[in-house]
Amino acid sequence: MSAILQKSRYLAIPDFRNLGVMLRILLLVNLLLLVAAILLRGSDPLFVRVLTLTAWVEPALLLILGILALLSEHLMRQRQPYLTVVLVCLLCVSGLDRLLTPHDPFPLERPLLAMLMALLLMHYFWLRQRALSPALSEARLAALQARIRPHFLFNSLNAAIALIRSKPDKAEMVLENLADLFRAQMADPGKASTLAREVELARMYLAIEAERVGERLQVSWDVQAPADAVLPALLLQPLVENAVHHGVERSRAGGVIHVAAHLAGKQLVLSVTNPLSDGNAEPHKGNRMALDNLRERLALFYDAEAQLEAVSTPDRYCAIITVPYQPAAAAQH
Questions:
Q1: Kind and range of the H or E element at 319?
Q2: Residue-wise pLDDT tens digits, 66-101
Q3: Which of 184, 185, 187, 293 minimizes the number of CB atoms within 10 Å of its CB?
Q4: What is the Cα–Cα distance from 137 to 307, expressed in whole angstroms?
């Protein structure tokens, strides 16, 4: 997970354990090989030239990716990780050359080419992360607009005002929860949260809405994942807000929102299920916008390692988020 860690200190080094990083490296290197095969002139057909190039590149590339994945945490703590990456590429290519052709003269071209390719790839990831930095801020602003809807703010304040005389303790609870939610909204978007904190914020939000919607809103919790699981901040609250706003609130009879969290291997799965009004399984436009916003945030934090899917039945709507599981203690190292 380290896509959160990846953005914390040294923007120039990617997390080589990330599936998206691995796929990009494999794709870019193989595209360069294809271009090189096209530019090379000879009597051999194109596919023969491609096979000749990949015969020595692919084993070295897979070995390099495996070693860099093992060293990823160490690399992200270094101030000059380029040197280690280049050294790994040099040693892997040189070692495979000696292993596969022990009696041939030691070739300098391939190790030097591997070093050059490693530097080009590191520069590509540096440019990509620089391009994503403003995108993260823009995604945060869009997320704030999607999550802090004016109607929610005004309705929460009106609910607190209505409770001040009859139930001052309830009014105080609404205002305190509202303040905590806004404090969380304004926090650093790159700072990691935990499952326990996300559940706490979701409970605060639902407690506010319960004062407004009343008994029509029922909540069922099934949280069986470790409380210290690391998550991007405010990942769960937008889902429960959608469940209230586009599910329970639109149904005359109300309904039960089911919030669940569990581990599936090394993946943390979060799901929020809400009833649909009048059997309408078509998602509301605002719901789709909020989910698209969450997908963008997940892509920025986890690249290709996370997903968000929505499943509809005639009477229920379920949003499911799957992210890599990492305990908070491991994220701090």
A1: strand 316-324
A2: 898 888 878 877 777 888 888 888 888 888 877 777
A3: 187
A4: 21
